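Something for you to look into today, if you have time. What I am after is a single protein written out in full by you. I want to see for myself how the chain folds. Could you add the entry underneath, on a fresh line?
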Amino acid sequence: MSSSLSIPIPFPIAMDSASSLTVTQIALFKPLKQKHHFVRGRVSVIRPLHRRLNSVSPPRCSSAGDDAVITLHVGGMMCEGCTNSVKKILESRPQVLSAHVNLTSETATVSLVPEQKTAPDGLKQLGEELAQHLTTCGFTSTLRVTDQEDSS
């Protein structure tokens, strides 16, 4: 009248403690024979952020004056994600051709579409509008007055 209970064990177990420990370890740590699909891609090491940002400089306005450029001081940026957000916010405006944002100098250099090339007063007004828009979006911003504008 004895009833037996059988429990299937997926790995062999020996009777003495030393061999059962060895057999158990081998069974537990042997590699799985399943195929794993891994994403293949290119990995690059990220250099320190301040070196990367200092190595990239925004394009300079040509001396011929055929590019309309506005420089803004932008505060509240903490990371590269913030710089990308500022860039997207500025480039979403219809007057903006492109924007280059520098985290370390806390500046945004904005190139305007050709139709926006106006008198310096018009550029100043547009710069203040862009700065106000950035401030509304959460980044404190002011129009940065350049040396060229100071002399005029």
Remarks:
- The chain has five helices and four strands.
